[in-house]
């Protein structure tokens, strides 16, 4: 086995990325405070061609040098919007026809592996603050909650790790 060189990976240019077909998925960040987490979500969203990221509340917006350290330029390729109130963001997505899930441990949540999606529909996932998670008023506006099963002593994952796991799983289910 030989490690591939960057020039052998078939990467899209930024221009090609902008016009490429996107995964029918929007990621909503509800008051995510860490610039590194935000940058990581951008980078993962670039990898799986997520349609857009909604940055809400205290979530920082590009450009920012600390965000760039983990985004590595994905903050310039992935479309994003700032919406001050995450409830408003969810309401706007609902009006646009999205099915919306909060990623949260909640009564009646659906385990990630059991989430069933329909091709041809558009989805959004809301990821919450590193300490408080997704706000209850946002959860109340969602169609359901997705939960990642966890089996150790810490039933908590970093928000950027959660984003990676959820986006990858939904990509497999929705891949165009």
Count of DSSP E strands? 7
Largest sheet: 7 strands, parallel
Q: Write the H/E string, N to C.
A: HEHEHHEHEEEHEH
Helix run count = 7
In spatial order, strands of the major sheet run 3-2-1-6-4-7-5
Strand percentage:
15-25%
* Uncertain ranges: none
Helix content: 25-40%
CA-based shape: globular
On the 0 to 100 scale, the average pLDDT is: 97
> How widely separated are the two ends?
29 Å
The structural class is alpha/beta
Radius of gyration: 16 Å
Briefly say what this structure is.
The chain has 176 residues and is α/β, with parallel strands linked by helices. The protein is built from seven helices and seven strands.
Q: Secondary structure elements and their pairing?
A:
Elements (H helix, E strand, L loop, with lengths): L13 H6 L3 E8 L4 H13 L2 E7 L8 H7 L2 H4 L2 E4 L2 H10 L3 E5 L6 E2 L11 E6 L7 H4 L4 E4 L11 H16 L2
Helix pairs in contact: 2-3, 2-7
Task: Report on this structure.
- The protein is an alpha/beta fold.
- The protein has helices at residues 14-19, 35-47, 65-71, 74-77, 86-95, 136-139, 159-174; strands at 23-30, 50-56, 80-83, 99-103, 110-111, 123-128, 144-147.
- Strand 1 (23-30), helix 2 (35-47) and strand 2 form a beta-alpha-beta unit.
- The longest helix is centred in the C-terminal third of the chain and has 16 residues, at 159-174.
- It is globular and about 45 Å long.
- The mean pLDDT is 97.
